[in-house]
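Entry type: protein chain
Record version: 2
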Amino acid sequence: MAGAVFGALGGRCVWGAFRAFLLRRIAHLDHLYGLLLTFGLALIFEGTLVNFFGVSGSRYATPEILQGGLNLGFMFLPTYRAWVLVAALAMCLFTWFMIERTRLGAYLRAGTENSQLMQAFGVNVPLLITLTYGFGVGLAAFAGVLAAPLYPVSPTMGSSLLIVVFAVVVIGGMGSILGAIITGLAMGIIEGMTKVYYPEASNTVIFLVMILVLMLRPVGLFGKEA
């Protein structure tokens, strides 16, 4: 748990530096420029790390206190995987609560809708956005530390999930945190069941669901019409 906390704080500090020196210079431009800049930086970092450390990756040992498993009768559940599920759900619900049920979250939502009006009321919107992005980077670092004992840690471990995460967000609905949480859990169950009964389709079932949702409800399952 300490590793996850320190990893999240470290990611937050790194993001703060890049936000201060790079992203603030293009904050007045369209959001697409920020997306392209961060994606380009990710590719640069990934290529640099691959050059020095390779792509084979290495595994981290499961904490001793979380070793073993639980016999549920119909399956054997490793203790660490159960812990990851609980920790991830707790963090997701905490994030949803902060954004949807607190005054800080209300300021953030209002600032993304009309930043000039919020700044006229004395709210430091740029600082608020910086802290929000930093919190997002911290969440990514937290997830990476939790995944370390499950998957080989390598420079490319995150890029392979970007497309899947994008599909989950699209299915749940852009801007809906609760939708992303519920959709992520549902897609994980669907993908797992597909691996059991039809492994050949396990890598594409999420995208088939995304296509179906976009055809029937373009804003996503939990999204709202503009």
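Comment: DSSP finds nine helices and two strands in the chain.
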